[in-house]
Design brief:
InterPro entries: DNA/RNA_pol_sf (IPR043502), GAG-pre-integrase_dom (IPR025724), Integrase_cat-core (IPR001584), PolX-like_BBD (IPR054722), Retrotran_Ty1/copia-like (IPR039537), RNaseH-like_sf (IPR012337), RNaseH_sf (IPR036397), RVT_2 (IPR013103). The chain is of the alpha+beta class. The chain has six domains: 79 residues, no CATH class; 98 residues; 183 residues, no CATH class; 163 residues, 2-Layer Sandwich (Nucleotidyltransferase, domain 5); 244 residues, no CATH class; 111 residues, Nucleotidyltransferase, domain 5 (2-Layer Sandwich), CATH 3.30.420. It is 31% helix and 19% strand. The strands form ten sheets. A six-stranded mixed sheet has the order 9-4-13-12-11-10. It has a six-stranded antiparallel sheet with strand order 30-31-32-33-27-34, sandwiched between helices.
Length: 1230
């Protein structure tokens, strides 16, 4: 901004003051306005009117420049400033405080700044210099040598050699010289990385395309442009070099590869390039290899570089008719395609024939096993074999079991007519005895012949029927299944239902899927006369879509023979699989889904020479991936394992995934059903099951059985490894470890319920031994040492001999991970806590009570900050309990891993309160209370953990939750002074403007703008923890009219601990930021001691509701309105005892701050009584809020309005007349 025009500079926000101030100063200097802004030029007292007008004009112009370069959210800071000098000083005061807290924070930020892996050096140095500039601005001098040391120590481990080289010097380089060296080193590494990223393929290949085109037979032209990496000359390679070998790559074996450039080709992992220059077969895909052994080997390239092989094994390639096994194949993950070495192939007995446009490889008998056509000078072969599928045990009985006990003649027909791919049969008998089939299909009577009026097109006629109720609920809670069969193709789709009335929803889903996949519209729906098909909604839907309904004659199921027969066949096949596998009846839905999957890939008399799958999709199915239902499977265990623990986990195959190319596996240990792609099957092996089906956890099985074919790792008898980073989808993780409070003195903070990290999946150790054996041992050790050093520094204890008659209490290390608002790891924490459970009342403790602020009060403070333009900051007191003194002598054993070697038998006499002691919380609260009172703050009588200090029109409020402190103030200067005063008494972590307090995410528009609070990251973590990240969202937390009571005969109990854990996690969310789920959660909490399956299903429905509403927030804004209350009651809402529910919500600053949903203690005889009781309960909260607001200094809020929609209750409140219909109401409600 100048007289000549506007300069484009970055506008000021709450993060860029330093860079903004430099640019703004430059603009003002250029405009010749800076002397006025900085105060160097002031208006003379004896200035003439003209001089005064000129000065004022320049001052106004400078002020306008400043105002125009500030974002609207920051204008509140300077809108009352009438001169440019005041505005500049005000901004400097706000964004560049010079108190000790600011200096400590910045220096700590510089000290703990760490360069992250992958970060560019220039970005890291810029960040370092930015912090240094901020320190210089507030007059903090840091010696240059110390700056160089800090900068070097902040580098990643990959720079260790660079640091060692600097340390070897006699003196440190200047900071500027060090900066130049680091930038040069960073640029060099970046250039190397970019060279590597351009592809191992690019680097691995040298230009052989042109050589082949010019002269395939000339060895001179072949090596003309190549450089020998042994002698450095051109025209030959090291393998033909006459000079002594100079390259030393260690003791590892070295292979050589001359490979053609593929820059103009698009290759994949199925491509095999047949190359005469390669000395070894090379494979980039670990899953194609068998008999694999890890082996490090260098692959030297035509330049001065090399690739690294990770292992060696065998690969089978060829076509469906002929194949060959390549041995000693090197595994090179950096390649993007595979290579067949011609020399290796010839050595193994194969013959290579090359014509002008084609290359063939023949086996010893002369049969062609590979044929490759020339493409851009390369001979490329695409492997047709699916080596990921086991070809073992290709006998009739195996395939009979894999196909769900399909009859032998159908298998024979499918094999002879080649109706599917991958089916290999040998010596098919005419008949075969199967005990499972005999037990499951005995006395099966034939249905009458089906109608001859077959459909000619897909979706022309759809048959449907419902089977059930099944006597056992499925593990998904279903009692029925519905089938939809296409008349023309006989393709079956199965849906699982909890009740018959869900058939309408199932048909809509089927219709959308079928019409989308086939591009054909459904014309006729044929069903029986069941009520579920005759609903008004169903009928209207059919009419709207032009679908003709065909109903059977009542009590004549033969007319719906296709669907009836399909259901019977599915049940028989499912029953056979369950009997054969030995699994429980609760797996019937998994078996039925598998049966539908198999029947769609099996021959049927209704189709000639085709399977339903082929008729539906126009593609022949591949069945080589089929496995026996109930077969033992080994899947990768993704949980953290020690080096010598098994990597695989035994599971049971219970079907094929309907959403991905994978299997459905049941884990008997955790009683969970997962979906996994990387599996090894043990043929003929089964896992015995004696599980309680009620403890099984799975996902909704109402989805359609889509036809995706899994891609499974090959079964081998050698070393098992599945080289895939694909996680099993929709897997439920383990429950969070329960936190033992161990003390009443310090209320447990309501942090994340989940022991999971977004940035790192950290398993929290329980003992020191577990921490020392964890892969995060360095982090845990560092955290323990840091905690121990802090305790020693604070003189927490004295090492003494145990006095006679005294008994020491134990101590232990407790571990946790500090999270950021987005769930990523902030730091590892370790806390030494005393085992206060062994303390005795009156001997080493007395009082234990310690108050904390209510969540409703925290929200009220946030609302007041919006309504009255208060600044809102937060801070955390480090090791808070260690700041308080003990009134009793307490002796503690020395902590594990930190026992004094000189005096191992001595004990610790505590001088200060240690975490875990029963009185620690109370002692800390009293210490903090005394400090705040000394600062002039007074605690509220209504809320002892809220302190106020008001002067004139200034508000200063402090809310305390143990060691977390929330500060609201009218003046940013006063707020910084408050933080500085607290920092003099305790070590604090200044969180700045409140963003993440007690697990609540706080977002604000500027310093004093609108505020939104939410817990979306907590919701996402909770969904992930319960395996419901991909669940379908619903629009309500509970179904309308849901009751917690249930029929005792029909009850299926679930695990009480898991249910309570889920309800506790939801309750924390409900009382923090989600009033919309409070009633639902409190209703389900009534079953905490006796939960059933329907209650757990209802709790999961709340999770599904949260999935769709995770981004909802409570928005607080300035409204200039009073606090208002809304009350309602649900008369007789609980069917078990006919008691009513009271609900209330208090609104301030445009959003709710306090809410409640509670069952009334009496049975209301009328809606008037229920509403009146709810009014009474809300009135008590209103009186409390009025008193609290008055103590906070907001006494001008006027009367509080309570809204209610029952006129009778309102009349009774105004005039409590006692008559026959109201005199019985308890006196406490009047």
């Amino acid at each position: 901004m100048s007289s000549g025009g506007l300069y484009a500079i970055e506008k000021l926000d709450d993060t860029n003051y330093c860079s903004w101030a430099i640019q703004m100063k430059s603009v003002l200097v250029h405009s010749e306005l800076w002397p006025i802004v900085c105060g160097r030029l002031v208006k003379a007292e004896n200035a003439t009117a003209a001089e005064s007008a000129t000065f004022d004009l320049k001052d106004e112009k400078a002020l306008a420049c400043i105002m125009l370069s500030i974002k609207p959210s920051q204008l509140n800071h300077v809108k009352h400033c009438d001169t440019s000098l005041k505005a500049w000083n005000k901004l400097n005061e706000i964004y560049q405080p010079r108190g000790p807290a600011r200096k400590i924070t910045l220096f700590r930020k510089m000290l703990y700044l760490r360069m992250s892996e992958g970060q560019q050096m220039k970005d890291h140095i810029n960040e370092f210099y930015s912090i240094w500039e901020q320190l210089k601005e507030i007059e903090v001098t840091v010696p240059e040598d110390l700056l160089s040391i800090i900068l070097l120590s902040n580098l990643t481990k990959s720079y260790d050699n660079f640091v060692v080289a600097i340390e070897a010097r006699d003196s440190l380089p200047t900071l500027e010289m060090l900066k130049i060296k680091l930038l040069e080193e960073g640029a060099r590494r970046l250039e190397n990385d970019e060279g590597e990223d351009e592809g191992a393929n690019e680097k691995a290949f040298v230009a052989r395309i042109n050589a082949r085109k010019n002269n395939n037979n000339s060895s001179v032209s072949r090596y003309a442009n190549m450089k020998c990496y042994n002698c450095g000359r051109h025209g030959h390679i090291a393998a033909k070099c006459r000079e002594p070998k100079k390259v030393q790559l260690g003791d590892e074996k070295t292979s050589f590869a001359i490979l053609a450039s593929t820059s103009s080709l698009v290759l994949n992992k199925k491509n095999w390039i047949i190359d005469s220059g390669a000395t070894s077969h090379l494979c980039c895909d670990r899953q194609l290899m068998k008999n694999y052994k890890e082996k490090k080997e260098k692959i030297l390239l035509a330049g001065d570089s090399y690739l690294e092989a990770n292992g060696i094994g065998e690969v089978e390639i060829g076509n469906n008719d002929h194949r060959v096994t390549l041995r000693e194949v090197l595994h090179v993950p950096a390649l993007k395609s595979n290579f067949v070495s011609v020399s290796k192939a010839v050595q193994s007995g194969l013959t290579v024939n090359i014509s002008k446009m084609q290359l063939t490889i023949n086996n010893k008998s002369g049969t062609v096993v590979m044929s490759a056509k020339e493409n851009c000078g390369l001979f490329i072969f695409e492997n047709k074999l699916n080596t990921c599928f086991s070809l073992a045990n290709d006998n009739v009985l195996d395939w009979h079991n894999k196909f769900g006990h399909l009859n032998v003649q159908s298998l024979k027909e499918m094999h002879n007519k080649k109706l599917v791919h991958g089916l290999k049969l040998k010596n098919v008998p005419m008949k075969m005895q199967c005990t499972s089939c005999a037990e499951s299909k005995i006395c099966v009577n034939k249905f009458p012949q089906e109608s001859k009026n077959r459909a000619k097109k897909l979706c022309e006629i759809i048959h449907t029927d419902i089977c059930g109720p099944i006597n056992k609920k499925s593990i998904g809670g279903s009692r029925y299944f519905a089938t939809f069969i296409d008349d023309m193709s006989r393709y079956k789709c199965v849906y699982f239902l909890k009740s018959k009335d869900e058939i309408f929803s199932a048909f809509k889903s089927f219709k959308a899927m079928a019409e989308k996949q086939t591009n054909c519209k459904i014309k006729i729906l044929r069903s029986d006369n069941g009520r579920e098909y005759l609903s008004k909604n169903f009928e209207n839907f059919l009419k709207e879509n032009g679908i003709v309904r065909q109903l059977t004659v009542p009590y004549t199921p033969q007319q719906n023979g296709v669907a009836e027969r399909a259901n019977r066949t599915l049940v028989e096949m499912a029953r056979s699989m369950i009997v054969h596998s030995g699994l429980g009846e609760c797996f019937w839905a998994e078996a039925v889904a598998t049966a539908a999957y198999l029947q769609n890939r099996s021959v049927t008399k209704s189709l000639a020479n085709r399977t339903p799958y082929e008729a539906w999709t126009s593609r022949k199915p591949n069945v080589s991936h089929l496995k026996v239902f109930g077969q033992l499977a080994i899947a990768i265990d993704k949980t953290e394992k020690r080096k010598f623990q098994p990597k695989g986990k035994k599971m049971v195959m219970v079907g094929y995934s309907d959403v991905s190319k994978a299997y459905r596996l049941y884990d008997p240990a955790s009683k969970k059903v997962i979906v996994c792609r990387d599996v090894i099957f043990i043929d003929g092996a089964y896992v015995p099951h004696e599980q309680n089906p009620n403890d099984i956890v799975t996902f909704d099985a109402e989805d359609i059985v889509n036809e995706a074919e899994p891609s499974i790792a090959e079964d081998t008898s050698g070393d098992y490894e599945v080289n895939s980073d694909l996680q099993p989808t929709r897997v439920r993780r383990g429950r969070p470890a329960f936190v033992r409070t161990g003390r009443r003195g310090r209320p447990r903070k309501r942090r994340h319920f989940l022991n999971m990290m977004k940035a790192a999946d950290v398993e929290i150790p329980i003992t020191v031994s577990e921490a020392m054996n964890s892969k995060y041992v360095k982090q845990w050790t560092s955290a323990m040492q840091k905690e121990f050093d802090a305790l020693v520094k604070r003189n927490t204890w004295s090492l003494v001999d145990l006095p006679a008659g005294e008994k020491p209490i134990g101590c232990k290390w407790v571990y946790s991970v500090k999270q950021n608002s987005d769930g990523s790891v902030q730091r590892f924490k370790s806390r030494l806590v005393a085992k206060g459970c062994s303390q005795q009342f009156g001997i080493n403790f007395n009082e234990t009570f310690s108050p904390v602020v209510r969540y409703a009060t925290i929200r009220l403070v946030i609302a007041l900050a919006c309504e009255y333009n208060l600044h809102l900051h937060q801070l955390d007191v480090s090791s808070a309990y260690l700041n308080s003194e003990l009134q009793y002598d307490v002796y503690v054993k020395q902590p594990e891993n930190f026992v004094n070697e000189q005096f191992p038998n001595r004990v610790l006499k505590l001088n200060k309160a240690l975490y875990g002691l029963k009185q620690s919380g109370r002692e800390w609260n009293e210490k903090l209370n005394s400090v705040l009172i000394k600062m002039g703050f007074m605690p509220c009588v209504s809320e002892p953990c809220v302190y106020t200090k008001n002067e004139e029109d200034k508000y200063n409020i402090i809310a305390v939750y143990v060691d977390d402190i929330l500060i609201a103030s009218s003046s940013l200067k006063d707020l910084n002074n408050i933080k500085a005063r607290i920092a003099k008494e305790f070590d604090i972590v200044d969180g700045g403007p409140a963003k993440y307090f007690l697990g609540i995410q706080i977002e604000r528009d500027g310093d004093v703008g609108n505020i939104a609070i939410s817990q979306r990251q907590y919701i996402y973590d909770l969904l992930k923890h319960n395996g419901m990240e991909e669940c379908k969202a619903v629009s309500t937390p509970l179904e309308v009219g849901f009751q917690t009571s249930c029929d005792k005969d029909e009850c299926i109990k679930v695990n009480t601990t898991e249910y309570q854990s889920l309800i506790g996690a939801l309750m924390y969310l409900a009382i923090s930021t989600r009033p919309d789920i409070l009633h639902s959660v409190s209703k389900l909490a009534q079953r905490n001691t006796d939960p059933h399956l329907e209650h757990k299903t209802a709790a999961k429905r709340i999770l599904r509701y949260l999935k769709g509403t995770a981004e909802l927030k409570l928005h607080y804004k300035k409204t200039n309105r009073l606090v208002e209350c809304f009350v309602d009651a649900d008369w007789g809402g609980d069917a078990s005892d006919r008691k009513s529910y009271s609900g209330s919500a208090f609104v301030a600053a445009g959003a709710v701050t306090s809410w409640e949903s509670k069952k009334q203690s009496i049975v209301a005889l009328s809606s008037t009584e229920a509403e009146y009781v709810a009014l009474s309960i809300a009135a008590k909260e209103a009186i409390y809020l009025k008193r609290l607001l008055r103590e906070l200094g907001f006494s001008n809020t006027g009367p509080m309005v309570i809204n209610n929609d029952n006129q009778s209750a309102q009349h009774l409140a105004r005039n409590p007349v006692h008559h026959d219909r109201s005199k019985h109401i308890d006196i406490k409600y009047h």
